[in-house]
Amino acid sequence: MSPKPGNESATLTPMAGRSGRWYSIRLEYDSSRTRSPWWTPILSVVLALLLCAVFIAANGMSPLVVYEKMFRGAFGTSYGFTETMVKAIPLLLCGLGIAVAYRISVWNIGAEGQLTVGAMAATAVTIYFPDLSSFWSITLMLVFGTAAGALWGLMTAVPRTHFGVNELITSLMLNYVALLALDYVVFGPWKDPKGFNFPGSPMFTAAQSLPVLGSTRLHIGLVFGLVAVLIYYLMIRFTRWGYELRLIGANPTAARYAGIHIKKHIIIVMLISGGLAGIAGMAEVSGVTHKLMQGISPGYGYTAIIVAWLAKLNPLGLIVTSILFGGLIVGGYSVQTIGLPSSISEMLQGAILFFLIAGDMIHRFRIRRSA
What we know:
Layout: E1 7-16, E2 22-30, H1 40-58, H2 63-75, H3 78-102, H4 111-128, H5 134-163, H6 167-187, H7 221-238, H8 240-250, H9 252-257, H10 262-289, H11 300-310, H12 315-334, H13 344-363, E3 365-370
Antiparallel strand pairs: 1-2, 2-3
């Protein structure tokens, strides 16, 4: 029995059935099975918790105690919950941008760099236009941050569409360019002369800072993220552009024969993807740090890749997974009080990604029986 086109056979194992007739078991790889079951992300999280529990127990601690500590630290108090939401904002915006690009199988792993240049562009407004009113400061910071992130995304899209350069390479390399540019400005021209020689820009004024909720650090960047998710849902579900994205993602060949300009869509989604990450950078400097400094992002752009994949590009799923990973980050800080390093959260993130990839790969295999 020959495999279908696009499939690859793996092994043949002769076995005897109840009737005594021999048949073979064939393991086939089916490249057309791109959608794994809805429960794969849930199972991935559970398996990641079990795997990390082994390492926690090997360290002489109870996994249940550690996980309870992480949960209470992230969700058990009002302070912990608001801090989780603060961490979820850049994850949601960057994850949404990655999800938009991956709709047509474009891998944008440059959200870290796009976030960084968005933060730099927003800070430029505070440096060169320091006396603007609150409305114009925030508006220009949002516009500049979005534009800078979109431009960084475009620098990945153009080599892909015009020269066939893999976007994994360009988007990853541009992350390092952005980080080096950040080092240059915070150690050089934008360094605060009153900052006791620490690398960073001058502190933002109240007019240059995003409004916050009460006495917490939760800022209106959350509104930016939720509005962006709503627009994403409406555009994907109810517009021609969204239909074309779904068609390209499902069958690029059919989309091309239908007259859809795939290269144009790659450029558009990378502009959107980079712009959303740029908004995340603007929200981070204006709503959290209130200054541009070295290490403005602790890896939000990379973590957002797992957020988007775990959510299976679903709008509601993106909100849930960004809060989950925000909670992992905050929970990681909490366990330091009982003697574990905060890197436990990074171990959990890595384990979740491992099981997600494994689940998707296993799903692409079919077991067939032939006489």
